[in-house]
Amino acid sequence: MISSLFLFRKHESPKSIIRVIRNYTFPLSRLFASQHLQEDERPLVEGVTVENMNEKLFEAIVPYYKYSYKQQLELKHERIRKTLQDVATTLIWDEKLHPFIRKQIQSLNGALCPIEAVKPSPRLDYYRNKDEISIGVGPDGDEKTVGFLIGKMTTNRQMCIPSGELPNTRASHKLVAKHYQNFIRNHRLNAMHQDQLRHTDLYWRHVTVRSNEAGHVMMVVFFHPQALTEAELIECQRDLRDYFVDGPGRECNIKSLYFQACRHTRCSCDRSPFQLVFGEPYLYETLLEKFRFRISPESFFQVNLKAAEVLYTSVREEAALRSNTTLLDVCCGTGVFGIVMSDLVEQVIGIDSVPLAIEDARVNSQLNGIENADWLFGTAQSRVKSICSTLKEGDKDVVAIINPARSGLPNKVVHALRAAENVRRLIFVACKPEGPAMHSFYELSCGERRREGITGAPFIPVKAIPVDMFPHTESVELILVYDRLQ
Predict the structure, then answer these.
(1) Distance CA 365, CA 374 (A)
(2) Using CA atoms, how far apart are residues 356 and 339, in angstroms rounded to an integer?
(3) What is the mean pLDDT of residues 410-430?
(4) Which residues 6+ apart lie within 8 Å of 11 measured at CB?
(5) What is the mean pLDDT of residues 319-345?
(6) What is the torsional sign of CA 356, 357, 362, 368?
């Protein structure tokens, strides 16, 4: 097979030429042709103009904003119902499913378990304490537009829209975005879009903006170092400081200004350390009026503090903890779940694969005077099995809390928890229930499959508690409570 590329001037008609080529035949063969528009001739996102860009941004970022809050909660409840019904339907087809679980699903007319009403967020607007702000082509064609990307990430057909009147984004974050746009448009070095990592003449990248209830702002600037010397990188950091501390950007009142030189899509702090350009190294946040937490550039912390308090209170109530319980906090992050429930248990063991998260968890324990918690670095699949085995030898009562990232939980972690029959109750907190978490829901309750590593008595889904962590969006956090089948 031979392929050829034909280029035409704009005044010529490719379509008519394509018809000629397609009608031309060789013996035992035929020619095929199609038209490919050059990148600059294709709209990045269909139908987006300067006049309607705010409307399109709302449709992409906060699609439920057009509904009343009561309607939003009803829609989210229905999403959860369908997701869990899909899990239940898959379980019913499992020939090895335990009769008790099969009977429960049948008695609930195909539902996995009872689902409570969605717990509302106490705060509906301007609740996000973290935003990732991108650089891209704006509706007016400016390649140095700072805001939020809409369109298809898979095809790199995205457009960047300024944050405008987004109801979930704080004014302080919007102000940082406005000034960062002004900064990169006037800087001598060019800015980079997320799909331009291979370009060798682009430098300034996206920013992460964090803030706390006190109004303190952390700005983390990502930068591609290309072939710049250390002295030139320091000069770029000085430029940031001059603008955001001493120049026009000082109105952002930045409390912590960080800089990370990263050549990849993402860089962990051990691969490329965050450089503190100005201010305090951390932000601090108070949870449930008594717990204090340190927030670093890479820390995971729920984006809606007031809804997070609803989430943590609900988990605390549902965990059925005892004074002799060991709480296993899987994917512990900065240690929030373990710290909030440490007063109810004998011991907390937290596991996370991010070194800085474990460091934060240990510091947070000290900040709150917690002395019965151990925070272990490592992947959950490498740690859970050995920990559960040790706890079994001591005949410990164990309750596990799992709070994985959107990418889900490795199968081996689920298998290790299934095999650890001293885990009496399990609380699964899913930020994206309709994603990879569905497979974990299935494996926690399905019949044994020794060849696949699924052994031990299954977990019975007891109840589902949705929490609205993200008002005006389609997303909803889910607490799924499991008991070990005795």
Answers:
(1) 9
(2) 17
(3) 91
(4) none
(5) 94
(6) positive
* Alpha-carbon dihedral sign for residues 358, 362, 364, 365: positive
Residue 31 has which token pair? 């020619």
Q: 88-102, 146-160, 228-242, 433-447 — which is least confidently predicted?
A: 146-160
Catalytic-labelled residue, pool 113, 252, 431, 446 = 431
Helix (H, G, I), strand (E, B) or coil at 461: strand
Q: Are 48 and 141 in contact (CB under 8 A)?
A: no
Angstrom distance (rounded) from CA 423 to CA 483? 9
Q: Of 58-62, 216-220, 375-379, 480-484, which range is least confident?
A: 375-379
Tell me the C-alpha distance between 22 and 30, whole Å: 7
Tokens of 385: 């099995």
Strand partners, 210: 130, 218
Q: 60: which DSSP letter?
A: H
Take residue 419 and report the two structure tokens written for it: 């095999």
Greater model confidence, 391 or 83: 83
3-state DSSP call for residue 72? helix
- CA distances (Å), 216 to each of 3, 92, 130, 213, in order? 58, 51, 12, 8
DSSP for 296-321 reads -TT----SBHHHHHHHHHHHHHHS--
Q: What is the mean pLDDT of residues 78-95?
A: 96
Better-predicted residue by pLDDT, 196 or 75: 75
Active site (annotated) includes residue 431: yes
Q: What is the pTM of this model?
A: 0.87
**Residue in the block written with tokens 């984006």:** 303
Measured torsion, CA atoms of residues 248, 250, 254, 259, in degrees rounded to the nearest 10: 50
- Give me the phi and psi of 258, to 5 degrees please: -115, 155
pLDDT averaged over every residue in the chain = 89
Which CA distances in Å does 30 have to 4, 27, 36, 317?
A: 14, 8, 20, 71
Mean pLDDT of 203-209: 96
Q: Please answer whether residues 220 and 273 qualify as being in contact, where contact means their C-beta atoms are separated by less than 8 angstroms.
A: no
